[in-house]
Amino acid sequence: MEGPQFAAFETEYLRPKYEEMEASRRRLRSSAFMVALVSVLAMAAFMFVGRESAPSEDWYATVLKQVQGMRNPRYKCHTTEGDFVIELFLDTMPLTASNFMDLAETGFYNGIHFHRIIDNFMIQFGCPYARHHRHPWAGTGGPPASTTFKVANSYSVTRDEQGCIPDEFQSYISNVAGTLAMANKGDPNSGGSQFFINTVNNHHLDWWRHDLSASQHPVFGRIVEGWNTIRKISKMLTDNKHSPIKPIRMISVTRVA
Asked: pTM of the predicted model, to two decimals?
């Protein structure tokens, strides 16, 4: 799906959901509820955050102000099955987007295989064990432990001893087709390098929909080019554990905007 087809897909499915969720976020952000939410997130992440000077508890609120008006970065993902381009929501999900940016720009994602594909659901990527096609531990790995990256070119965040970052439950963007969301281990603050691309609408995975699922997967980006590549990968033959039979390798992830 390219050109006019992708534009129609974006207009019909992605943009309305994006605008709807962002409008909700802006309304809630002005309320006492959002103030409390930001404070809780800041406290939960406090142990992860450092700076050349001592960080304050409201560091996350400061970051949110800093990223307002910033241009969201875009990255081209070059795979053995074709290319696609993603936009990261740095302006609303600065912590998670910056985590991805650091991993991409240090070459972490280069050479990793897509390790999980479920047709009419999603495709998953980002486990370092998946550098080897169909590795038995694929899906269990993450970034190097205790590594540090910058958020908004200001605050330093250190991943924990398992390479995980704090959950960023901040932006009300739904898991609609074409969006990127954080994968996790089923526990709080257990996301690292793995993410999935929704190939259909998966609203039950939204972090605020506790009545639909215990899973909580915040969205931090979307596909803006190359939907045909995503659809092609999503239809690849898999085994009974949803591992693709044919190797699908990420050759490079490069910033293009």
From this structure: 0.80
Q: Quickly state the pLDDT bin for 44 (edges 50, 70, 90).
A: very low
Number of domains making up the chain = 1
Identity of residue 173: I
Rounded CA separation 98/152 (Å): 7
d(CA 219, CA 198): 10
Q: Which amino acid is at 197?
A: I
In which domain, by residue range, is 195 found?
3-255
The alpha-carbon radius of gyration of the chain (Å, integer) is 17
Question: What is the rounded CA–CA span in Å between residue 257 and residue 250?
Answer: 19
C-alpha dihedral sign at 110, 160, 92, 196: positive
- The CATH number that applies at residue 196 is 2.40.100.10
- pLDDT > 70? residue 33: no
Distance CA 124, CA 194 (A): 7
